[in-house]
Amino acid sequence: MPQAARVIHPSPDVKRGVEYWEGVAPTVDGVLGGFGHVSRIDALGSRTFLLKVLPRLSYCAPASINTSPFAWKQDKVAARGGKGKARTRALDCGAGVGRVTENSLLPIVDEVHMVEPVPKFLAEAKKNSPKWLPLATPPSQSPFQARKAAHFHCSTLQDIDPARPYSSAQKGKGKEFDPTVSVDDQNEGGPATGSADSAAEATSSTGDDHEAGSKHEPLKYDVVWNQWCLQHLSDKDLVAFLKRSRQALKDGQGEEGIIVVKENVCQEAADGNETVWYDDEDHSITRSTKAYERVFAEAGLKVIKCEVQQGLPQELFTVKM
Ligand code: SAH
Hints:
CATH topology: Rossmann fold
EC number: 2.1.1.244
Bound molecules: S-adenosyl-L-homocysteine
Helix content: 25-40%
Number of helices: 10
Distance between the termini: 38 Å
Radius of gyration: 20 Å
Low-confidence stretches: 189-207
Number of domains: 1
CATH architecture: 3-Layer(aba) Sandwich
Order of helices and strands: HHHHEHEHEHEHEHEEEHE
GO molecular function: N-terminal protein N-methyltransferase activity
Strand order of the largest sheet: 4-3-2-1-5-6-9
Keywords: Methyltransferase, S-adenosyl-L-methionine, Transferase
CATH superfamily: Vaccinia Virus protein VP39
Pfam family, one: Methyltransf_PK
CATH class: Alpha Beta
Structural class: alpha/beta
Family: Belongs to the methyltransferase superfamily. NTM1 family.
């Protein structure tokens, strides 16, 4: 019987990939390879894309409502359990210094879990996080009056289980950080320090699943966001990670979660078949669109929307999400 031709592609070197990033400066310009200036347009494209796919996350009242926008927001806050709750959650995969968490995810969801294997990147994110606008904003001024939080997990995507980031991240690999929780409102007697470690401790002991600093597992996500990091996963590791991520998505009626992949793509081969490039510098691979589509199909995923990120410099790879 004739056999289907199997495509053999180069695989990334995971260990040397992490070693490469350990030598990079812990800055936005560092993680973007000297293209720090694209961060703004990138984040705008990401937020717009996310709200198009999951309009339920939007803080703007839809035109179709028959109450006032003010009443709509009040109803939403009540449905979320009142002021100060964290209801929506994202995973930021290969989070670097927290650029995507700060600018693309936390403005929209209440709680973000960052997964990043390079300890100094995570330390930089933790240090800066109290100043990130969504975390420096008290619940009374926050969209839906939510209490926002960033959580930090030192791990590769090969090792992490999104449902159990606290227990699956390799212990002792990097310093462990308490979550940074948004500041309290001044008049409520809580600490309004901005570092919020004490607030995190206060909330994590309540056992309430909707408290922003809670470390309770398993977790369910509205969004698993992968950006500029899947080049460090072989097809086998990527299929396994996408399957674990899918298991950790919310799946309630009207509450389905999504996985977003925002990555460089190279051109298909001249004969139209998928192709993959090996990068000698960071020991990663760049896939063509068809190579990603095959991996998604192998993970049992369906593509529901695809866009090209506009406004990036010509000399860069095409970036699709
Ligand atoms: N997503 C971030 C960072 C991009 S740089 C942003 O867009 O700003 C690529 C990141 O992937 C680095 O932080 C690097 O440390 C991380 N990385 C490298 N190997 C990884 C792996 N095996 N699993 C998860 N992340 C990895």
